[in-house]
């Protein structure tokens, strides 16, 4: 099952409707309303719950089978990708919570400081681009990054900083008002809804509570259609209903599923920042004097992975963005990251994911370290091997090369800086 897939629904609202209020002014520009339902998994529309309004929208419009999230499959990063058309490494929002080594600060998803969002002035969301053309106005309600100034500009209409307490119906009413404004009629609106993600995290994606959330969202869609009809906008506004990621159930594990991490430094301090946010662990490892040892132990022995920080640590996802972490550890579907610390420097982790990430396997055999990253659902398929402190691509063992990721993301590291190259062809291997 494609856990990372998510629902994507486009609806053209056609047909006449009795109007309660005819707008005196309406934008001549194409009118679009983008509604995002957080964590709405691709197959939620197929669940046996009452959803007449979704069914109506599907019959009137087009339903895509699924979409692919960008990595990492988080709310803020994927919502920024939707409105900028940029990969996460390019727009710079790589998690809902992250540490930036340039700023030496931690980003939280409700931050409105432009430095976290505008990519040093290179990033511009759709609502700003729309307003660059005369007579076009944008409105944003609770969309991640929607209350941030880009190049000193905000959308014409906004409900201000993120506020989860705004009722869903009030969010829709605001959009309709802005479409009908006499002086500056909106032509682009973006709405964010927290469900069903919130219920999924609290009760699990297959829970009755998520069924209730789906039906509540269906009622919201019905309210929207009625509001557009009453405002005589029903046949004038196009709707796009995407989501940002899916979700899977968690699987309980015993102590045998634990991995112990010990972080040491040959010289001085090691700075360790561990963040766990809905199933992803970000590790940022730095050393004042250039050498950091990452030691992983388990029931089957010990693995030593030495990362030469003098040359910039190995980036498993290469990026030129200073906000990207050095090492991302995640694991298979169905688990959750649990961080346990003690007074003796031990960090016990279950390396897992609930949104669907990357599988990480570390093994040791006669001094060799094999770092294997795979994905069942088309993210990153990559195998790195190491001997005597070197990390390089093993061309004979790479799975599905360049099927889903750019070739330049395959890397080796020796005594030189991190290089982004294509893996060499193995002897006897066909091109």
UniProtKB/TrEMBL annotation:
Record keyword Signal present: yes
A Pfam family that the UniProt record links to this protein? Phosphodiest
Q: Which GO terms describe its molecular function?
A: hydrolase activity
Q: Where is the signal peptide?
A: 1-19
Which InterPro entries does the record match to this protein? Alkaline_phosphatase_core_sf (IPR017850), Phosphodiest/P_Trfase (IPR002591)
Q: Highest taxon of the source?
A: Eukaryota
Alphabetical UniProt keywords:
Signal
Gene3D superfamilies, per this entry?
Answer: Alkaline Phosphatase, subunit A
What is the name listed in the Swiss-Prot or TrEMBL entry for this protein? ENPP5 protein
């Amino acid at each position: 099952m494609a856990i990372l897939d998510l629902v994507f629904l486009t609806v053209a609202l056609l047909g006449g409707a009795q109007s309660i209020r005819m707008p005196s002014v309406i934008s001549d520009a194409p009118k679009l309303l983008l509604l995002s339902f957080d964590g709405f998994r691709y197959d939620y529309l197929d669940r046996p719950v009452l959803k007449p309004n979704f069914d109506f929208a599907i019959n009137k419009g087009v339903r895509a089978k699924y979409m692919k999230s960008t990595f990492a499959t988080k709310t803020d990063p994927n919502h920024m990708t939707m409105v900028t058309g940029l990969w996460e490494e390019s727009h710079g929002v790589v998690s809902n919570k992250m540490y930036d080594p340039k700023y030496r600060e931690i980003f939280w998803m409700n931050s409105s400081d432009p430095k976290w969002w505008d990519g040093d002035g290179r990033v511009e969301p759709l609502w700003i681009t729309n307003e660059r053309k005369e007579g076009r106005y944008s409105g944003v309600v609770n969309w991640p990054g929607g209350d941030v100034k880009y190049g000193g500009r905000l959308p014409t209409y906004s409900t201000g900083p993120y506020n989860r307490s705004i009722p869903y119906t009030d969010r829709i009413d605001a959009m309709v008002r802005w479409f009908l404004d006499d002086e500056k009629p909106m032509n682009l609106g973006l709405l964010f809804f927290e469900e069903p993600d919130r219920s999924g995290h609290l009760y699990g994606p297959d829970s009755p509570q998520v069924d209730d959330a789906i039906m509540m969202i269906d009622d919201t869609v019905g309210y929207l259609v009625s509001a557009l009809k009453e405002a005589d906008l029903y046949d004038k506004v196009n709707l796009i209903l995407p989501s940002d990621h899916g979700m899977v159930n968690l699987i309980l594990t015993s102590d045998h599923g634990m991995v112990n991490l010990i972080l040491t430094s040959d010289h001085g301090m090691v700075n360790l920042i561990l963040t766990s946010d809905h199933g992803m662990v970000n590790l940022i490892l730095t050393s004042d004097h250039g050498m950091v040892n990452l030691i992983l132990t388990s029931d089957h022995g010990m693995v030593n992975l030495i990362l030469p920080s003098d040359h910039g640590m190995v980036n498993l996802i290469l990026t030129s963005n200073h906000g990207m972490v050095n090492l991302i550890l995640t694991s298979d579907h169905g688990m959750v990251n649990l961080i346990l610390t003690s007074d003796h420097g031990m960090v016990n982790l279950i390396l897992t994911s609930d949104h669907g990430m990357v599988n990480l396997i570390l093994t040791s055999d006669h001094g060799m370290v094999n770092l294997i990253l795979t994905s069942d659902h088309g993210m990153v398929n990559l195998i790195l091997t190491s001997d005597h402190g070197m990390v390089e691509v093993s061309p004979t063992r790479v799975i599905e090369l360049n099927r889903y990721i750019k070739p330049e993301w395959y890397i080796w590291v020796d005594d030189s800086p991190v290089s982004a190259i294509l893996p060499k062809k193995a002897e006897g291997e066909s091109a």
